[in-house]
Amino acid sequence: MYAGAVTDVISLTGLVKTFGRGSGATRALDGLDLAVAPGEVHGLLGPNGAGKSTTLRILLSLLRPDSGEVRLFGRDAWRDAVALHRRLAYVPGDVALWPDLSGGQVLAMLAKLRGRPGQSDQSDQSDQSGQSGRLPELLERFALDPGKKGRAYSKGNRQKVMLVAAFASEAELLVLDEPTSGLDPLMEAEFRACLAEEKARGRTILLSSHILSEVEAVCDRVSIVRGGRVAESGTLAELRHLTRTLVSAEVERLPAGFEGFPGLHEVRITELGAGSAAGGSDGAAEAAGSAGAAERAESAEAAVPALLAVPAGPAGLAGPAYVGGGVRLECTVDTEHLSRLLVALGTEGIRSLTSRPPTLEELFLRHYAA
Ligand SMILES: Nc1ncnc2c1ncn2[C@@H]1O[C@H](COP(=O)(O)OP(=O)(O)OP(=O)(O)O)[C@@H](O)[C@H]1O
């Protein structure tokens, strides 16, 4: 797990924020810590109400925390807000634009506020050419018409105006709050491509999301926010390492002493009918093709907790005595015990074996399971 460094672009320590008072108070943040290193794409992941937006708003000095420290580029984010904000671009989750300004005028104004020279707000065309060399390209990629007035844009198009502004800027840090919530799949793909390019340019990016595939696809590191705190933080590999690998195998028999194996969970064992083809079925119900086999599958499944709990194992399941047409095993295993399990299965007439790390979704569900 990344422990933080003095050079971090973002450093949040012990953030506490309560909204309201008395019995109606909501503790939105409850000691949240977050560190984002230069050049990193960091995903803030959590369900509705976890505290992601509150964190971002505090980071941007739009809100003041009750306690805790907020540092941006090593400086006090509140005291040095004006100077620091020239170095970052923010895209809020719900973009509101000035209704009478065109998209092009908004882009020009945002660039001007950031302190870039050479803008004109006289016409949309000069706004585009004056703001950034990349602006025309970005407008095209996001299929955005800069001539429309703010009030005429859809939610997705308002979001695109702010995304284009952020990508076209030269800000070192991009802070994006649920950036694709209003985008269609094509635009989402464009967004991801842009993000990869910005990362290659060395920009630091913090994005909040509850779209797991998005975070998985684009982020170097992820912090899972829960109840106003960071429950876990690390690279996807690190987070997966802390968790379990899914194993699915068909073997002649279970290894002796299987019931005593460490780190096994969610074990499902199905006795395969004689002659069933290895690897040809994808699920216990299919594997247990006949009524008798289905019964055996059910009883094997029912016996699983006992199998794990009782070292000796229930009769008929443990060890080489359990043969017939073979055994289909599905389980999750703590990743630290994976190789031991695979070696043991490998000595028992293995017919097929698949194993895969948990998806971010599985990690996420594990964290939020009631
Ligand atoms: N201005 C406010 N007044 C009162 N409560 C608030 C305010 N802003 C946020 N909260 C509460 O603080 C908690 C955290 O909200 P926050 O918006 O930070 O969550 P989030 O993780 O961004 O959720 P979402 O994914 O739904 O945007 C929630 O319980 C929310 O209702």
UniProtKB/TrEMBL annotation:
Low complexity composition bias: residue spans: 118-133
Entry-linked Pfam families: ABC_tran (PF00005)
Sequence ranges assigned to domain ABC transporter in this UniProt record? 10-252
SUPFAM superfamilies, per the entry = P-loop containing nucleoside triphosphate hydrolases
Is ATP-binding among the key words of this record?
Answer: yes
Q: Where is this region: Disordered?
A: 114-133
Domain of life here? Bacteria
Annotated membrane topology? Peripheral membrane protein
Q: Report the principal subcellular site.
A: membrane
* Protein location: Cell membrane
In terms of InterPro entries, this protein maps to: AAA+_ATPase, ABC_transporter-like_ATP-bd, ABC_transporter-like_CS, ABC_transporter_ATP-binding, P-loop_NTPase
Q: What keywords is this UniProt entry annotated with?
A: Antibiotic resistance, ATP-binding, Nucleotide-binding, Transport
Q: Which family does it belong to?
A: Belongs to the ABC transporter superfamily.
Which PANTHER family does the UniProt record give? ABC TRANSPORTER ATP-BINDING PROTEIN, ABC TRANSPORTER ATP-BINDING PROTEIN NATA
The name on file for this protein is: ABC transporter domain-containing protein
- Species of origin: Catenulispora yoronensis
Lineage, broadest ranks: Bacteria, Bacillati, Actinomycetota, Actinomycetes, Catenulisporales
